[in-house]
Amino acid sequence: MQSYQEMTKEELCKEKESLEAAYKEWQKRGLSLNMARGKPSEEQLDLTMPMMDVLNSSADLHSEDGTDCRNYGGMDGIPEAKRFMAGMMGVNPENVLVYGNASLNIMYDTVSRSMTHGVMGSTPWCKLDKVKFLCPVPGYDRHFKVTEFFGIEMINIPMTAEGPDMDLVEQYVSEDAAVKGIWCVPKYSNPQGISYSDEVVKRFAALKPAAEDFRIFWDNAYVVHHLYEDDQDEILDILSECEKAGNPDMVYEFCSTSKISFAGGGVAALAASKANLEFIKKQFTVQTIGYDKVNQLRHVRYFKDMDGVKKQMMKQAAIMRPKFEMVEKVLSEELGGLEIGSWINPKGGYFICFESLEGCAKSIVAKAKEAGVTLTGAGAPFPYGKDPKDSVIRIAPSFPTMEDLKMAAEIFVVCVKLASVEKLLETK
Amino acid sequence: MQSYQEMTKEELCKEKESLEAAYKEWQKRGLSLNMARGKPSEEQLDLTMPMMDVLNSSADLHSEDGTDCRNYGGMDGIPEAKRFMAGMMGVNPENVLVYGNASLNIMYDTVSRSMTHGVMGSTPWCKLDKVKFLCPVPGYDRHFKVTEFFGIEMINIPMTAEGPDMDLVEQYVSEDAAVKGIWCVPKYSNPQGISYSDEVVKRFAALKPAAEDFRIFWDNAYVVHHLYEDDQDEILDILSECEKAGNPDMVYEFCSTSKISFAGGGVAALAASKANLEFIKKQFTVQTIGYDKVNQLRHVRYFKDMDGVKKQMMKQAAIMRPKFEMVEKVLSEELGGLEIGSWINPKGGYFICFESLEGCAKSIVAKAKEAGVTLTGAGAPFPYGKDPKDSVIRIAPSFPTMEDLKMAAEIFVVCVKLASVEKLLETK
């Protein structure tokens, strides 16, 4: 196909006309489609239904150390759940605390406690004039919402194909004591699907922070969320890398079963050094009477171990993969060679990240909306919802059916083309 | 029995000798008993085992409004769970948010958010020089731990047979703008088992706080936890009383199913005015991706409604009541007339509160420990763990078997007598 960049004004005008016609055809159909939500489909959730049978009324609800999961006690998780979640993250069970549903809640708590109580003896962040977080962009909007909620200043760090721009990270972290944290999704990142290279992980572990209470917030949300059986990303274990580099306390790692079992009824965990955990447990005993141990037991009895998880994730992949590949096919067939956008075909995670011409993302999302396709808001993957180039759009292929997704993708590419033509015409 | 108060020095010495002999006999048996833990017994937990069958692999896990409980979404609880928890508290479902396991976690969050974000627009408490909470005593140690954790100054308010000393509460609340809250367990209070009279509730609702961000923390932990079918305490609904008094936003009410279903896998809820909820929901969407909706659904499908809960609580009472009555019998038979202590026979809740002679509680708890009976630490029911009179001991009869409990109670009364005799001899 001819690149839009090389078209004359006349050619662009002609293209615009035909695109407008196509767009109107879609509008006429009055569709209501959604590629905004990074949530599992019903079919994926059905995979976990057998879990509902493992703890019935005749089951023994004691954990392996004799704890009655139905009663109070065992604040940091039952032993088998700690081992299970540790296996997922590739760390030692003694470095793990198991929580309730939702790892976001652990991240929120961790930031909230740092605000009110500091980090392992440091000044509470709420007593400081300025607290800053580094935010690799594009990133996960809910991370940014947490830091925004607490009035923490967020600094954009560009992503590269190997992870965040580490030169910039090293500079900020070593020079500015107000920089207290960085949000990372190190594997199959949200939204780009990028996995951090070994060098990036090692450079993270070797950071020399100006602030003693600087922490890496390592959200390993997609740790086992591969799309392919034979082509999987693996990243280095940040906890042991930090320990090797003499920075054992510098990282909090988070993960959950939200997109493994049920997003609405899973188990989440935190991994960190023993010194960090000791400090956190002081809050733990004040904060709650204990998380849901019955659900922890249910998960372990069902999945048993990492083999069980891997089998489950390959079933999930079998449902997810065709959706990703279909969207990628439409993008490639319809936009390939036009030079109006780029995207990465990820090997895991939940998203495809589309980068349009500068200044087109909002327009594309608005056009899609008017043709019946809801996309994640333009700007959402950036702190304060502000995409400096107005070019990043997060596509979530998981939830719609294949039929709906195909239509949504086809509408999307029409919108991309139309917005791009309009943009290019502005300067002709 | 002859009152210890009327005994001569010689009589007391003789009594001491015989008590020491009895105490040594108990010590020889090398028992290990526990009356410290306010947790349900295994037999009580077994009552809820049929709940494990209601959501099996062929169940429909959609809520009545079509929400797939397995997936993300529905931040404030599924409609039937809101209605269910509202029924428990006697409020409207629209005034309810449903959380995960543990109401203590909601209380912690509520205080924590007030510290960092204030209350409905007020200055964040962490920015103030001084924040104070009123603490009716004796009270629940974990409430006091929350406020202590945040450096909030706690002020003791004596309990009366009808609830907290309201003259004192009114004075503090109306005169001191640093007083931002009060911890209440209004029904079958922890540890005394006192239920607030209608007049007390109405005086609470009619408070005229100096601080606009003053809130009553109304922990209705034992709302349906009666010991008797035909002799039950009921208290007025604080939400509607506050509304009637023109103070609709002045109260947060908390409750949970911890001691109805499973303490280690229940559902908790918050009730408050719509204005409060609107403010809280802003945090909600930042704080979590959602609480466990599957467990919410499991609870409602099992209990169905308040009739289901009431039936369950009468089964719980049938297990609890003989334990309470047995302890009360031992206390009355062994201590009646001695004038060395008093206690209330509660009609619900989880505790019997024993009040010894001044300066004896620590000694009694220590003696019991050495004879193999663990009691809640003396001082625990007071802010900072400091009982000004050193006289209050919380007895938790629920967890031990009847046999163990009988021995524990018998050892306890020997320890009370012995500590009292020693005390009385000091001044002879």
What do you see in this structure?
Two copies of one chain form a homodimer. Chain A has helices at 9-28, 42-46, 51-54, 79-89, 103-117, 141-149, 166-175, 198-205, 238-244, 274-287, 293-303, 306-335, 361-370, 402-426; strands spanning 33-34, 96-98, 132-137, 153-160, 163-164, 179-184, 215-219, 251-256, 268-271, 341-343, 352-356, 373-374, 392-395. By secondary structure, chain A is of the alpha/beta class. Chain A folds into two domains: 4-44 and 310-426, Aspartate Aminotransferase, domain 1, CATH 3.90.1150; 61-304, Type I PLP-dependent aspartate aminotransferase-like (Major domain) (Aspartate Aminotransferase, domain 2). In chain A, helix 1 runs antiparallel to helix 14 (402-426) and helix 12 (306-335) packs across helix 14 (402-426). At the A-B interface, helix 3, helix 5, helix 6, helix 10 and helix 11 of A face helix 3, helix 5, helix 6, helix 10 and helix 11 of B.
Radius of gyration of chain A: 23 Å
* Biggest chain pair interface: A-B, 59 and 60 residues
Strand order of the largest sheet of chain A: 2-9-8-7-6-3-4-5
* Uncertain ranges of chain A: none
* CATH arch. level architecture of the largest domain in chain A: 3-Layer(aba) Sandwich
Quaternary structure type: homodimer
**Total number of strands of chain A:** 13
Number of domains of chain A: 2
| Tally of helical runs of chain A | 14
CATH class category of the largest domain in chain A? Alpha Beta
Mean pLDDT of chain A: 97
Secondary structure class of chain A reads alpha/beta
